[in-house]
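ESCALATION

Customer reports they have been waiting on this structure for their group meeting. Please prioritize. Original submission:
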Amino acid sequence: MSKDYYNTLGVEKGASKEEIKNAFHKLAHKYHPDKKGGDEGKFKEINEAYQILSDDRKRAQYDQFGTYSTGGGQGAGFGGFSAGGGSAFGGDFDNINFGGMGDLGDIFGEFFSGGGGSAFGGGGGRREVRRGRDISTEIEIAFHEAIFGAERNLLITKTSLCEICQGSGGQRGSAMKKCESCNGAGKIHETKRSIFGTFTSVRACDACGATGEVPAEKCSDCRGGGVLKREQEIKVIIPAGIKDGEMIRMSGMGEAVSRGTPGDLYIKVNVEPHRIYRREGNNLIMDLNVRLSDALLGTEYTIPTLEEPVKIKIPEGISF
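Update from on-call: job pushed to the front of the queue and completed.
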């Protein structure tokens, strides 16, 4: 049964990002497990709903399908055979290389397909999708920001799509012409020597990004590369309850590549220690020094919290 994230946050389906954020902060403050009357289970549901609805891509998928899944591809078929374009052998040979004799996925692809297509790619040779490089950085946040969540703006220098040609590599208005590297096929045939003999494999053409076309006139800004190194400001939403050393993954915010998909950005979160409290799981711990007379006779102490001071009662005869 799918979860109703809008109902969890108490907002309408057409709610703006600001309304969603305000609803999250209000409910997180109310149900935080470190507060009196808090509810850890409810808090986790609220946080899960916010992580989906605050991300445009995740929210779009949720709105369309009524659920969000981080997984991809198709499920397995009968008896271990793939229902989609996966390997029929239950193992991945694509990253195994035999000292210059070729990719074992390509070798077996041609061997078992009889030259008409790859047994590992579904037919007609594997189509490689170009992907940008993953990048990482670190951010330091205050203790209370780790507890309640926060937003930060980061300046990252990375490879991004050219703003003039939007990654095409061509001058604005330039016509396209046939790629000379692959003769317009979008793929390159390579002959490889292997332990089984000589085989022909097929890979995507790097020159045209497997499209078979290249701009007739290169972009003057990126000189045909489609990408440029530049500084970019990125808004980071730090979820409430994040722990010191945990990573935030921002899908598609890594380095861009021409005619391909961008990589991901990984942000390591370093939490500054608090002068009074320390964290153990979802609990906040503090040490309180009391006078011997107060321990023997009992009394009340006012202690600071992350929100407002509270009074606690020291029972009579408490032991050390």
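Sent to customer with the following note: The domain at 136-174+217-274 is CATH 2.60.260.20 (HSP40/DNAj peptide-binding domain).
Escalation resolved.
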